[in-house]
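Table S2 (continued). Query chain:
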Amino acid sequence: FTALPYALIEGYVVGAISHLYDVQTKGIAIQAVIATVGVFSVMLLLYGLRLLRATPRFVPGVIAATFGVMAIYLVGLIAQAFGSDLGIFHSTSGISILFSVVVVAIAAFNLIIDFDFVERGTAAGLPRSMEWYGAFALTVTIVWLYLELLRLLSKIQRR
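Corresponding output:
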């Protein structure tokens, strides 16, 4: 019952963020959409061809990297609340662009974990109600990937 309100709020917020970026750099939102579809398609192909798998070593590494990114975001948010800026979030420096590329890669690797969750759940015969968890995981990862690509493209175009 919370899916519809969540989807509406998320759609509004992502749309507003996209609009703000698009005002600064015309056409960047559609570029980010195309890039997101491209990354998703490539990761799905690599997963489907069994070139990338969610192995016991891969999953903890990606999860650790994801938590690392979350920690950096949290430190940046706290620093910004106290009037400081880490620089890697908004600047167009090489380090900032490299950071965004790494975050995009981590988000893309999270897709592999999501695909594996869906595949394993289907193979295990999980109840249909579990489909929501797989769909939600994919949605969150895709939105994160889109927002990171939007930020990366913005940095590149402002450079």
